[in-house]
Amino acid sequence: MTTVQAGPTPDDRRWKALGVCLTAGFISLLDTSIVNVALPSMEHGLGASEAAQSWVVSGYALTFGLALVPAGRLGDMRGRRQAFLLGLALFTLASAACGLAPGPSWLVVFRLIQGAAAGLVAPQTSGLIQQMFQGSERARAFGLLGSVIGVSTAVGPLAGGVLIDAVGTEEGWRWVFFVNLPIGVAALAAGLRLLPRYPATAAKRETFDLFGVLLLGCGVLALMLPLVQEQQWTGRLKWALLPVAALLLGAFWAWERRQGRRGRAPLVDLELFALRSFTLGALISLTYFAGFTTVFFVYTLFLQNTVGYSALAAGLTVLPFAAASAVGAAAGGRLVVRFGRRLVVIGLGGVALGLLGVVVAVQLVPGRNVGWATALPLLVGGIGSGLAVSPNTTLTLTRVPVHLAGAAGGVLQTGQRVGSAAGIAVVGAVYFAHQAEGGPGTAIQMGLLTAVGIIMIALTLAVADMRERQAHPGPAWVADGVRRGSAEGGAEEPVRPGS
Question: Which residue, among 417, 471, 403, 408, has the nearest Cα to 274 in the 3D structure?
Fold first, then answer.
């Protein structure tokens, strides 16, 4: 059966409910990067090998990515409130288990569960925003979500550094996970009280597409494994999984089309990709995250391993990016209604300019002063990131019908996770190769230039989309899809090919 959702909640409780969603989203995305600076502490305090450390980082990303699309569809079918609360409770319990882990193997197992729980939470957030808000209010809500996405990823190294510096190397890694407990419990209690319940009616026969889940899961697994394990799996045989991934994902696409022709609800409604705004936005998001997240990977490695910064000092160095990203995302949520895709173009250009400034600063100011020299370029890049992520999320999801919002959010965030894994594999390979050949200074410059090149691909896609929209404007829409007057609560725009 298809779940037909009601309109936005009529009272101001929806903004408090949004705060619950953003809090859960923050801690789940924070855990993608906070553990990076805690790896030496895990090695010292728990005796974690390099392989175990790798799986603590990559295993989370892997199960996070695998869970997103099925979780989004589950929320569409059975209710996003229930799926959100279940995922948040599981994430909080898994965080406690990670912090209490008696050995490296147990830590990896609990980390995999934690990633799956984060994947269950994430698509419900975008789906609930679609339900609770419309028009300019929805743009503001997605602006706040974009701020959380950017800040949580960027502030992770700082948060981890602060905890390890306060608690000590021996036990500091445990508090990287324990910090989630009071936040998770508070968010769960608030969610039970504030998250809205929407009535649903059965409109057509619908079952959960288990075979589709299997095909998609195996395809994403085959795609992500060689990427997240690029540094740990030596040799070229790992890349043989990529054509296997292509075959499995092609089979998934064919199966989903068959499901649609037979009148059965698919795991991913392929009509989503008839929405031009969704397809282009998802591609922009995938390529941007491939460049954006890699910056903190190679830069914090460079600061700690080459310059001699502590975990805390390395985290403080990226604070300008995190703070500026929050400001840029909040502004982007307001400005997207007026400027549309042009704002994404400006933001991506700012990120590229800021990272080029970091490359210049690293070259001109070697040594321990490099952190101060890169503060201004990172500030520029952070503002650009906020102006890119938040509006792109709004423009990508704004025309998606509410009953498909969970699946659409899952697809969008799966692309972000795959993009992050691919970017770290590519930029990491460039960084380590040049470190062996030309030294750490050359390595960081070439790594950052590679990240800039990936971001320029996202910029090219955004410019192409902007020009297409300028050439073929839609009279009923302004700012690439946010409709006039929809803040007062209009009907959802149906899926239309080429939209």
Answer: 408
**Distances, alpha carbon 325 to alpha carbons 228, 281, 312, in Å:** 26, 19, 20
Lowest pLDDT segment from 275-284, 383-392, 429-438: 429-438
Backbone phi, then psi, for 168, in 5-degree steps? 110, 160
Task: Give Cβ neighbours of residue 223 (< 8 Å, ≥ 6 apart).
Answer: 241, 242, 245, 249, 418
Q: Residue type for 50, please?
A: E
pTM across the whole model: 0.77
- Compute the distance between CA of residue 213 and CA of residue 93 in angstroms, rounded to an integer: 25
Q: What is the pLDDT of residues 271-281, one digit of tens each?
A: 788 888 888 88
Closest CA to 17 of 185, 190, 140, 184: 190
204-261 pLDDT, tens digit per residue, is 446 777 888 888 888 888 887 887 777 677 778 888 999 999 999 999 889 888 887 8
Nearest alpha-carbon partner for 418 in 272, 247, 228, 269:
228
> Which residues, including other chains, have CB under 8 Å from residue 463's CB and lie 6 or more apart?
345
CA distances from 306 to 155, 164, 314, 496 (A): 21, 20, 11, 53
Q: How far apart are CA 385 and CA 390, in angstroms?
A: 8
Q: Please, are residues 85 and 192 in contact by the beta-carbon 8 Å criterion?
A: yes
- What is the pLDDT confidence band of residue 284, given thresholds at 50, 70 and 90? very high
For position 479, what pLDDT does the model report? 41
Which among 489, 498, 441 has a CA at the least distance from the CA of 465? Answer: 498
